[in-house]
Amino acid sequence: MTYKSLKRAAVCGIGAIVISAAAAAYQPANAAVLGSGSQSYRINVLTTIGIADGSAADTESICTRAEFARMLVMASSYKDNVGTASTAAASDVPATYPGAQYIRTALTEGWMRTRLGGGFHPEEGVTLQEAAKATMTMLGYTDADFPNNLAAGRLAKFQGLNLDDGVFKTSGSDILTRADALNIIYNLLRTNPKNSNSIYGSAIDLTLASDNELNATALIEASLTGPILVRNEGAIQEVLPFALEDSTLYYNGTQTGTYLNGLRYYTSQLNNTGWLILYYNANSKTVWGYGTDTGNNTYHCVRGRVSSITYEEDNIASPSSVWIDNTEYTLNSADVKFMFSVNGEIKVGDDVVLICQSDTRETDGEDTTDYYAVAVVQYSVNTSAGAMDSYGTLYAAGAGHYKVVNAAGDDITATAGQ
Fold first, then answer.
1. What is the pLDDT of residues 72-103, one digit of tens each?
2. Cβ of 273: how many Cβ atoms within 10 Å?
3. Domain-embedded: residue 290
4. Cα-based distances in Å from 363 to 145, 329, 368
5. Could you please report the per-residue DSSP string of 83-142?
């Protein structure tokens, strides 16, 4: 329960990862309708789930056949089982060729073919006709579906299914740019295969939002790592699988601009409180940090001891709010409510960190700010030291493992429910 709510809290303040840097951070209630269909949106979504790689930013360069083969595989149910190539994938693609395993899969599945002479020609540009052949095959169409004129019929069906949405190429021999290829893959994922009512992307657990765009919230939740509790500045880089200077940083739901600005926010939080909660997405190299500074941010953390729990009409199965050191915080999700219920893990007297969403409204001519707990992190306190910050083990019932870094920078691994 807690694991899902913690991830959702990090997702709540994202914004620029899936739309644009200028877009507002979205909230849980309307996340399902997120989606603009813009090129940046599509690239960021595909980057988040690992289909687009670091070269995606160079959208106007030619997309090679090798690159396209990788995109096809990563958009399919084979993405986690591709392994490595032990033998040559084609006469001009030895096993040592980078991406040979993707080329082998694309050829084996019949999505792509070798060119005249038997070579795959991995460095040559992929054509619109080749992309149409690949995606139509993945959708379950065969040569028999186009008996009169195979190439023309396939391309016409490809265009009729709007698989070329965002692609400004019309001739089958046209060479695709990376932007063209990414648009085609994105469109593939949201298209129903032949004789199916589910989108192709459902094979890798993707769904559509109400605007017919891929559901960004679900994508990000599925590929998010966290929470991670860090105790010092050095530990921030230690827990990340990518360079901090190459990442996009958020603090309490707001993008920080340069990574140096973000690092200053993170360091200030660590200096003031001795802890910082992090989430990250490895594919997009994005980090979300949460701390106590409210400022102009929508989200912030509150740390303290549970002094009392308020229930709805004396129903102990349905808590409505929690008091942390004599301040009340409304519980606004089923996951968080469960953690404070009679069947949950957190009781009066426990030490916790709440990730809260703030909402300011006008009441009788004055601004009133309400705080809603959207996630909860419980500490395992070192009572002998008498300090909550001594170890700070994070856990969530039934949620797997969390990596925690203590004040010395050493790793501590805590099992769920420990």
1. 999 999 988 887 878 999 999 999 999 999 99
2. 15
3. yes
4. 65, 18, 6
5. ---SS-SBTTB-TTSTTHHHHHHHHHTTSS---TTS---TTSBPBHHHHHHHHHHHTT--
39 assigned to some structural domain: no
Q: In what order do the strands lie in the sheet with 225-230?
A: 254-255, 248-251, 286-290, 276-281, 225-230, 401-405, 411-415
Structure token digits, residue 180: 């063209």
pTM: 0.66
Q: How far is CA 99 from CA 9, 107, 202, in A?
A: 36, 13, 25
Please give the Cα distance from 67 to 284 (Å, whole number).
Answer: 18
Last residue of a domain, one of 145, 177, 205: 205
Is residue 66, in this structure, part of any structural domain at all? yes
Q: How many angstroms separate the first and last alpha carbons of the chain?
A: 15
CA 47 to each of CA 113, 139, 246, 249, 414: distance values in angstroms, whole numbers, following the listed order: 26, 22, 15, 16, 30
Domain count, the chain: 2
| CB burial readout 127-150, b (16+ within 10 A) else e | bbbbbbbbbbbbbebeeeebeeee
> Bridge-partner residues for 19, per DSSP?
none
Q: Domain for residue 37, yes or no?
A: no
Picking from 154, 177, 205, the residue at the C-terminal end of a domain is 205
Pick from 36-50, 197-211, 375-389: least confident = 375-389
Which structural domain, as residue segments, surrounds residue 353? 225-418
Residue type present at position 11: V
| Arithmetic mean of pLDDT, 351-374 | 71
CA 29 and chain centroid, separation? 18
